[in-house]
Amino acid sequence: MSGVPHNPDGQPLTTDQAFININQTADPGLRYYAAWWLGKMRICQPQAIDALLLALEDETDRSPDGGYPLRRNAVTALGKIGQGNDRVVLALINCLHCDDYYVREKAAQSLESLGDSLAVPPLINLLEGGVAAAVQDSDKPHLVQPYNAILEALGTLGNAELATIIGPFLDHDVPQVRNAAARAMYQITGEAQYAERLVKVLAHDQLQLRRAALMDLGAVGYLAGATAIANTLAENSMKLIALRGILEHQISFEIQSGEDTSPISDDSRQVMELMDSLL
């Protein structure tokens, strides 16, 4: 194997070649692809972590709008392979201050995936100013912060004490932000009223919002929404993904609570029957 960057020309990339590609700087495209590949393949070797952390400092791979494509891929990859690594968590927290909106968005998502509560205070800082500050960026096709990703991460990592911070976003002008707030509020409080907000979105006239609500309900495992999910006007493939999420949450709950006295509970069987009806 040579120590030079290499395009596999349709052939599978090897781990050794991915390390070569991500550590070189002559070809940004190969480096970008290698960062994605290391995360996709869950290459957890220290060499991969080191290379991806170094990629977070890259200044050469810039998009026309001034963003950092390589950093975005590196952030996403680290969210897949950086479990239990304090260096990764701290580096991703630092990425929350990047001037690239999409780096901040992916950093919030990756920190959520890693499940480290150390990320909660810096995520809260991004909500400074509350709903009043959550406005459209004057020069970009998005809000000033990736509020969806931030709220969802806080829902996963936080607790009920964050309700006063997250709750006001239930009244934001942007439907996706309201949905993210509802999802987070359900996660931190367990109150069905917030998940029911997402169930109502399943009847929205915009398919994109119905799809998003499906994924949110599946992600939080809202069992009472299973029938509504199955009846949503959306692709069966997406409904199946949402129902699978609910089923996984239900089985996990039954195991943890000691209620798995029978092979399949009535609740789990009901979800499985709904899934069968969509096949």
Describe this protein's structure.
- GO terms for molecular function: oxidoreductase activity.
- Keywords: Antenna complex, Phycobilisome.
- It is built from 16 helices and no strands.
- It has 279 residues and is mainly alpha-helical.
- The chain has a domain at 1-114: Leucine-rich Repeat Variant (Alpha Horseshoe), CATH 1.25.10.10.
- Helix 15 packs antiparallel against helix 16.
In brief:
By secondary structure, the protein is mostly helical.
Q: What is the C-alpha radius of gyration, as a whole number of Å?
A: 21 Å
| Large-scale geometry | globular
Roughly how many Å apart are the termini? 47 Å
Helix coverage percent of residues? 55-70%
CATH architecture of the domain at 1-114: Alpha Horseshoe
Specify the number of helices: 16
Q: Which structural class matches the secondary elements? A: mainly alpha
CATH class annotation of the domain at 1-114: Mainly Alpha
Tell me about the biggest sheet?
none
What is the fold named in CATH at topology level of the domain at 1-114? Leucine-rich Repeat Variant
Strand portion:
under 5%
**Number of extended strands:** 0
Low-confidence stretches: none
CATH superfamily membership of the domain at 1-114 = Leucine-rich Repeat Variant
Average of the residue pLDDT scores: 94
Give the SSE order as H and E letters.
Answer: HHHHHHHHHHHHHHHH
Essential attributes:
279 residues; mainly alpha; Leucine-rich Repeat Variant; globular; ARM-like; antenna complex; PBS_lyase_HEAT; ARM-type_fold; oxidoreductase activity
